[in-house]
Amino acid sequence: MTRHDRDASGGMAVHLVSRRQTARRLRSERGATLLEVALTLPLLLLICVAIFEFGRAYQTWAVLTNAAREGARVAILPSTVSGAVDARVREYLAIGGLRTDTSVLVNVNPSTVSIGGTGTATASKVVVTYPYSFMVLQPVAQLVVNGSMVGAPITLTAMATMRNEQ
């Protein structure tokens, strides 16, 4: 590395900067960069994983909502057999890539809906309850807070109400 100065005669004089000063400056900058990366990389990874995890949760919620809607379409039919709504909801969940075990609850309840003015009609309300677990965030939370319920599954609920056919 060189430094240029004007000498007394107006010409350019070249001075060599000591190699020790250059090496010392580079080492101190390298250490600062390493420290910055060590502090920011985990935060950046956490943000990326959180985006992935919450996107997956939103997709699961969308499948649940559509499954509840499909169940309600079956429930409003006049000749619906027992268990048909549950079977349709679980079929839709399986097609959507979600589990369909006994932890998934499907409830069909009679309801009423407004048909304008003061009139009402009978309806069927389908509620689907699904225990959702984050793939990465919950195990990390359990590592940070050992033995807590921070990493327990959250419950996603979707509901659809449709007027019964006569």
Distance, first to last CA? 90 Å
Gyration radius (Cα, Å) is 32 Å
**Contiguous helical run count:** 3
Mean pLDDT: 83
Q: Which structural class fits the helix and strand makeup?
A: alpha+beta
Major β-sheet, in short? 3 strands, antiparallel
Q: Identify the overall geometry.
A: elongated
The low-confidence parts are none
Number of strands: 5
Helical content class: 40-55%
Strand order of the largest sheet: 3-4-5
- What proportion strand? 25-35%
Task: Name the helix and strand elements from N-terminus to C-terminus, one letter apiece.
Answer: EEHHEEHE
List keywords for this structure.
alpha+beta; three-stranded antiparallel sheet; two-stranded antiparallel sheet; elongated
Topology, pairings included?
Blueprint: E1 2-6, E2 12-16, H1 19-75, H2 84-95, E3 105-114, E4 120-132, H3 137-144, E5 154-163
Antiparallel strand pairs: 1-2, 3-4, 4-5
Helix pairs in contact: 1-2
Structural summary, described in words:
This protein has 166 residues and is of the alpha+beta class. It has helices at residues 19-75, 84-95, 137-144, and strands at residues 2-6, 12-16, 105-114, 120-132, 154-163. The chain has a domain at 52-163. The protein has 3 helices and 5 strands.
Short recap of the structure:
With 166 residues, the protein is of the alpha+beta class. It is 46% helix and 26% strand. The chain has a domain at 52-163.
